[in-house]
Protein: Cupin type-1 domain-containing protein
Amino acid sequence: MAVESKSVFLKKGEKIPNNEELPVVIYQQVNSKDIEKLFHQHNWLNSWTNGVYSYHHFHSNTHEVLGVVAGEAVILLGGDTGESIDVSSGDVLVLPAGTGHKKVSSSSDFKVVGAYPSGMEPDLKKEDVHCERFRKDINSVPLPNQDPIFGYHGPLIEYWNIKK
Structure:
């Protein structure tokens, strides 16, 4: 699998806490037919298939992986002053707890598979001027034990400095 990866650090926002300790990890060129299977093999469970909400939101109690299985979109990470990412089929985003995300635009066939480490059940938090009240919860979310694409030896393990 000739998958490319990169990481993006997001700064704390006014209405979105983000995660200043862990970067968003972006994979490109993952076989979109294998995404959900890879997630499950590597203990990223409780999966669903749909789109991405068109409003800023984050999860304070779990990390999230989003794998694009069809179409293309622009996803805004980190709130209004964050970073816009163009995604298309085969792209995967690993969002650390607290990372704001919203769909800005998409093709009509845009679909993602989402999942959570160890099948965590995500909360849904919208942008909030009092978002710092979630910082303790965000900082206490355990690190996953596997990269959602490569398992025990993937870029996420290195980017997030996960102990093997």
